[in-house]
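#struct-help
A.M.: can someone run this one for me? Single chain, 398 residues.
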Amino acid sequence: MTAFVYAAARTPFGRFNGALADVRPDDLAASAINGVLAKTPGLDPATIGEVVWGNANQAGEDNRNVGRMAALLAGLPVSVPATTVNRLCGSSLDAAIIGSRTIEVGDADVVLVGGVESMTRAPWVLPKPDRAFPAGNVTAVSTTLGWRLVNSRMPQEWTVSLGECNEQLRERFGIPRERQDAFAVRSHQRAAAAWDEGFYDDLVVPVEGAGLARDEGIRAGSTVEKLAALKPSFRKDGTITAGNASPLNDGASAVLLGSEAAADAVGRAPLARIAGRGASALEPQAFGFAPVAAAERALARAGIKWDQVGAVELNEAFAVQSLACVDAWGIDPEIVNVKGGAIAIGHPLGASGGRILGTLAKVLAERGERYGVAAICIGVGQALAVVLENVETAAVGR
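D.P.: on it. Structure tokens below:
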């Protein structure tokens, strides 16, 4: 059996402390679920065999199986089971991979996948003391991003900040500040143009009461000169700034997967076939480079090579790691993130994989390309990738 993408939707991505700051993550997730189900009005929600949901934090309002909470809040029947998975930044792409396997082994015909993150509402946490009533002070730890409550047995080189990891990557591959800034500007320009041209109009659904119509972080007027004026964020002599790295964000994404036989139940033809999947892992501090191997494995399992790929959605955690991956693949940069990337659109950790997968399916349809790759780097040295095949293009053998 084969798994297909039938529909995708996401919320606008809000800035940290921005328009979505007052919205709980389970409510954000419910908005994305309702958005994708609105595209398939003929589907009986009771026929959804499983909800697989991604979330990276799970320390606050998203702590108790947020996938199940969101499904209930979205009004799905209580008989629809749900689970939440955590592979940090790759959580919702992992959810899609798990969902596609569920379909392929015949355990379900329709699976709803996606993910959510509210980085604004991520709580501070206090570790429990070894003994009751400690006399000294205790420190609250932010769960918004990065390492927290680190095990002392971990080598120090593994647990440096995400920014420092990518400064090391920059040194390794000799990627200058100017290339990073230019890549970031292109992300903003492409995202703004895609919104202006209406590309996202049927992919992005509103969040009730939030009053946010578009992704909040896009700066259409961004220029290389403006980014060049920003100070480095992680090293005094570094190259990574707030302008060439993804920001902190809130948002949710959802993708409806199904078997080929599910078309009648879904009420529409599928958009794309999940043709290959890949996971990779390496040293934690080199996480930004991990998509290279993940994508190569996904392509091998799809039985194709890079010269057959017409579109790539690579999550832009940092401009430097995106450039390192594109350089290593040896592909035309013009096919990468043609509708903008995470530097402009945002990177709410648990939602980004679903965003790039849904965007890729639509880009393939719009451009008439047959194959595309969605890839994402993941903290602590991992990455995931999925190859999609455009159903319509495949049918005519292009």
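A.M.: thanks! DSSP finds twelve helices and twelve strands in the chain.
D.P.: also worth noting: Residues 177-196 form the longest helix (20 residues).
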